[in-house]
From TrEMBL:
InterPro entries: Anti-sigma-factor_SerPK, HATPase_C_sf, HATPase_dom
SUPFAM superfamilies listed in its UniProt record: ATPase domain of HSP90 chaperone/DNA topoisomerase II/histidine kinase
CDD domains: HATPase_RsbW-like (cd16936)
Lineage of origin: Bacteria, Bacillati, Actinomycetota, Actinomycetes, Kitasatosporales
Protein name, per record: ATP-binding protein
Keywords: ATP-binding, Kinase, Nucleotide-binding, Serine/threonine-protein kinase, Transferase
Superkingdom of the source species: Bacteria
Length: 154
């Protein structure tokens, strides 16, 4: 599947509380910042998205995006817990968000991993699988890294 590279916006789309949409679905969960929680985050995505009616291809992509964002928060920050958000509008678009507690670099930066490198490809995968992604400071400290997937683009 050929995927065009996309510009990386600096702010995530926000949903206003004033405009409630009955088609909007949201799942929020917090997990301890440890290795076993990566699998737990993937399982939450894999369990929830079919309930919301998303096709298996979208579930696969979202599961991988969640895994990469969660792993980055785990490896590159001093977080004790990581907050995860899944937000869907009907079956057309999906928003994945991971919030850490800080203690790491200013923001995620994609690297050019070599053929022999064992890591460094996560954000390149996120960029390839999503319509947009970015980061912003979290309200209480730390960082929010988010990604938006279109169900029709996968």
């Amino acid at each position: 599947m050929a995927v065009a590279l996309r510009q990386r916006p600096t702010m995530a789309p926000l949903v206003s509380a004033a405009c409630y949409d009955a088609a909007l679905r949201q799942e929020i969960f917090r997990l301890p910042a440890r290795g076993a929680s990566v699998a737990a985050a993937r399982l939450r995505v894999r369990s929830q998205l079919p309930v919301w009616g998303f096709h298996e291809d979208v579930c696969d992509a979202a599961e991988l995006v969640m895994s990469e964002l969660f792993t980055n928060a785990l490896v590159h920050t001093g977080s004790e817990q990581i907050l995860c958000v899944l937000r869907a509008h009907e079956r057309r678009s999906l928003y994945v968000e991971v919030t850490d507690q800080g203690g790491g670099p200013l923001g995620p930066t994609p690297r050019d991993a070599g053929v022999e490198d064992e890591s460094g490809r996560g954000l390149a995968l996120v960029r390839a699988l999503t319509d947009a992604w970015g980061d912003r400071p979290a309200a209480g400290g730390g960082r929010v890294v988010w990604a938006q997937l279109s169900a029709t683009a996968i």
